[in-house]
Amino acid sequence: MGRHQVEVTINGKVYQEEVDSRMLLTDFIRDVCGLTGTHVGCEHGVCGACTVNVNGAAMRGCLMFAVQADGQEIKTVEGLTENGKLTDLQKNFIECHGLQCGFCTAGILMSTEDYLEKNPNPSTKEIKEMFSGHLCRCTGYEGIVKAIEKTIENKKTAISSSNSKGE
Length: 167
Ligand code: FES
Ligand code: FES
Hints:
Blueprint: E1 3-10, E2 13-20, H1 25-32, E3 51-54, E4 57-60, E5 73-75, H2 88-95, H3 105-118, H4 124-130, H5 142-165
Parallel strand pairs: 1-5
Antiparallel strand pairs: 1-2, 3-4, 3-5
This protein binds FE2/S2 (inorganic) cluster (2 copies).
One FE2/S2 (inorganic) cluster binds near residues 46, 47 and 49.
């Protein structure tokens, strides 16, 4: 098994490390970079717990090798906060009981953030389809849907109030 030098930018910080050719990106993020917010469940691309954002798209970290991330820009759940403050999506997960043990939460947040950026006004059915690739053993999923819908509503309210101020 070979060793390779990689340079990966995670949440704006550059990590230069030598890794085994078969090291998974999730292991690199957690064990080498110490960013343990990204979780590892199935390691087969099924549960979604390991989801991170790679170059602007939500991806399964367990389906990539660290060497494939060489030169790439990655965002993990630690990079979601804005100036140390939780995003509206994160706050709504707390308020709407969108998490219990939290094992699945980082992955769902990363998928949702990416999805809402590209699809700002999805229906409930579309929201459910979006995170159907994520397994949660605790919440029954209803709180997660409510949290996402509340985030969409808050964004709409903020846009309409800034539009009316600009009139
Ligand atoms: S750990 Fe990657 S999808 Fe389950
Ligand atoms: S909150 Fe426990 S697995 Fe989802």
